[in-house]
Amino acid sequence: MSRTDTFGRSDTVAGPRNQDHEDAFREMFDMAPNGVIQVDFESGKIKHANAAMQDLSGFTLSDLQAMRFDDLLDARASEMSYGGMVPEIASAEAIGPFEMTFMDAKGAPLAVEVRGKAWPDSDGRQSLWCFVCDLRDHRQKEVEQGAEINEAKERLADIIEAAQLGTFEVDVHTRMNHINDRWAEMLGYERAELEPLDIDGFRDLLHPDDLTGFDDQVTSFAGGAEVFEREARIRHKDGHYVWVFSRGRVARRDRDGRPVRISGIHLDISEQKAREEALRAAMRRIEDTSAERDDAQQRFFDVTNVSNVWYWEQDSDLRFTYLSDNLKRCIHLKPEMVVGKTRAEVLGGDQAAGDAADWEELARKVAAREPFRDFTYMVPGDGEHPDIWLRTSGAPFYDRDGNFAGYRGIGDNVTELVEAMKRAQAANRSKSQFLANMSHEIRTPLNGVLGMAELLESHIEDPDKLRMIHTIRRSGESLLNIINDLLDMAKIEAGRLTLENAPFRIDEILRRLEDIHLLRAEEKGLSFEVMIGSGCDQPRMGDSHRVQQVLHNLLSNAIKFTEKGSVNLMVLARKDQPLKITVEDTGIGMTPEQIDQVFDDFVQADSSIARRFGGTGLGMSIMRQMVTLMDGKVDVSSTPGEGTIITVTLPLPIAANQDDKPDPMAGAQAPHRFEGHRILVADDNPTNRELMAAMLDSMGAESMLVNDGVEAVQAAHDGKFDLILMDISMPLKDGVTALAEIREAEKSCGQADRVPVVAVTAHAMAHQIAEYVIAGFDTHLCKPFTRADLARTLSVMQGPERSGARK
Fold it and tell me: Which of 19, 57, 243, 299 is deepest in the core (most CB within 10 A)?
């Protein structure tokens, strides 16, 4: 009786004969030199293992019979399992080979190759007979053989290199010809210039008379030829043909006998012919070079004839030896007027020309044999022609022995550019002057508006009227901020914004700002907190006014653009670390595109922002430029609808002398009363006179009012005053002239105590204030000013040592 198993094989039911066969099979099984294991097909359990498998694995037969096939696998390295082999067993009579990693009895990895065949045992149960080959020796032999092959390749490469042989290897399928460096060198190429080189490209290099022999050779390979030798002419990169001896063989064929790879060598056998051909090629190269030189020279002349840039050359003594002919078209000088002279000789020692450029820097670069770029200088006119401005760039050149030979370069006429720059600078100065004048004209009436509003506020108790006064003052202060922003921007653009370097304490600035901005935040219902970190009480060197302006702009912006939530300021000033200022708000936030534009002049997020919140769009721009002047940096992080975080880092050093104190004007506490003080007020504006009189009267001081500088000089001569408040811009005689005459009168009378004179002015730019101090004013009071500003000035100018001095 027979039956068919799962794999379609017919088997006879077990009987004595089958048992005999199985016994004989097991005997061969046990004698096999490789490991053999019998695995139950369904369960994967090991049923038997021969002695070789026991020796290979280190497990005893009983150990193995207690294991499953997967128990032998190294779970860390094996990509195959018994279950993974089952589908292949079901579809094929034999499986494998598979490379696997077993674990031996000692737990060491064992690289093996497994092949298998499914076969029923005597009981009719399907078994998988696995033949296991130890790959360790095989892999070691592969490594050793690989080393031997590599060594042989290196020896062969050394031999080829020593013999100066060019090698090639043709892949018939891809038609690509792989060559070595010498093969390309024979033809005057770098290998990279030729590769990829296919058979058609190689045929293009062959001499036409050798093409037939090459084609016959290719045909012979298909007919069974293995080795070939031939001589052929191959075109050199320069155009000549090199005679080479070519020897090769078919290195590999496919199953159908067609050539797959052909390899061989090339040897130059045409030394004499190559010398003759090289001579001819050299003659051709000379002719080609001459033609190229002529072409280059012609191109040079063609370009210079239409260009406004001329070319020049100087010798080692820096005398001009060549100038292109188009020089005379670009300027009034001709080449013959310049050749043989140095630049200094061309300028003729003209003082204005000498002062118009940094000749010392040019001399330094030339002495150091350095190139120079865009050196601009003036060439004086000759009476018939005006002065001109030239721009030149040059680089040193050397002779064949490496000796300095001179300079070569280009030049062009930039007179129009320089004149345009001068006009732009003049326009910028005019703009700055216009802004200064406008500032003066606006500050003067604004002083009356804000001052009178402040005085009026002290006389009103009605809440509605007080709100109106507050509105007037806030509006006036907003206008003043706009004026200040415009002036700062003008100074920045003109490069006239300078920074002071004096000791100050950041905590004092923070407390002043907290008082100023807390009210604004509370009016909008915002939470406002100033966190002063450790070290803020340590004096630092810098411009306290500009630092305060940076903080003010940041806080003003944060409060302005925050409708609900909070605005927080945190300042860290740890020792030996930069000043770190962080302002965080829960305002409208910004998109990445808006962040990119936040520091641009006159820019806000969009037009609706400007309409909704107001402002000029200058605050952040000025803030960033001031931070840059202080060598600091600004980082912005923002999310629309959630808020903004701005971090400013200022590398302001700790003051070396901790006893240094800030400007006494900044921290002076002004007394409220100045009874017994006589003060002369000189101002041509009636409103300002009335304002100062009212403020002085409210502080108990006696005031005398005059209209101009003439009256001020006369009043100072006729009366005794403890202080003079002097306007600068007045008719008939300005404040500076009046001060000079007052000082001269004091000097001529032998007056020991000079009356303090304060410049009260709407000219508030830093350079203007410096001019007043130089002119002799004791200090200045900038319009518009508050009653507190005036009181502080009086306090400083009328300290205990001055009090009552002129009574």
Answer: 57
Q: Where are the alpha helices (DSSP H) in 324-368?
A: 327-330, 335-338, 343-347, 351-355, 359-367
Q: What is the CA radius of gyration of the chain?
A: 50
Query: Token pair for residue 24?
Result: 């004989």
Q: Distance (Å, rounded) from C-alpha 634 to C-alpha 473?
A: 32
Q: Give residues with Cβ within 8 angstroms of 303, minimum separation 6.
A: none
Tell me, what's the pLDDT at 16? 59
With vertex at residue 707, the alpha carbon angle to CA 705 and CA 713, rounded to the nearest 5 degrees, is: 85
Is residue 704 within 8 Å of residue 677, measured between CB atoms?
A: no
Residue with the two structure tokens 């050199």: 236
Written as six digits, the tokens of 143 are: 């490594």
155 φ/ψ angles, rounded to the nearest 5 degrees: -65, -40
Beta-strand relationship, 46-49 and 94-103? unpaired
pLDDT digits (tens, 9 = 90+) for 368-404: 999 999 999 988 887 788 888 999 999 999 999 999 9
Tokens of 750: 């032998």
> Rounded CA gap, 377 and 414, in Å?
10
For residue 451, count CB atoms less than 10 angstroms from its CB and return exposed for 0-12, middle for 13-18, buried for 19 or more: buried
Q: Which of 77-91, 116-130, 611-625, 773-787 has the lowest mean pLDDT?
A: 611-625
Give every CB contact of residue 477 below 8 A, 6+ residues apart in sequence: 450
DSSP 655: P
Collapsing DSSP states into helix, strand and coil, what is residue 684? coil
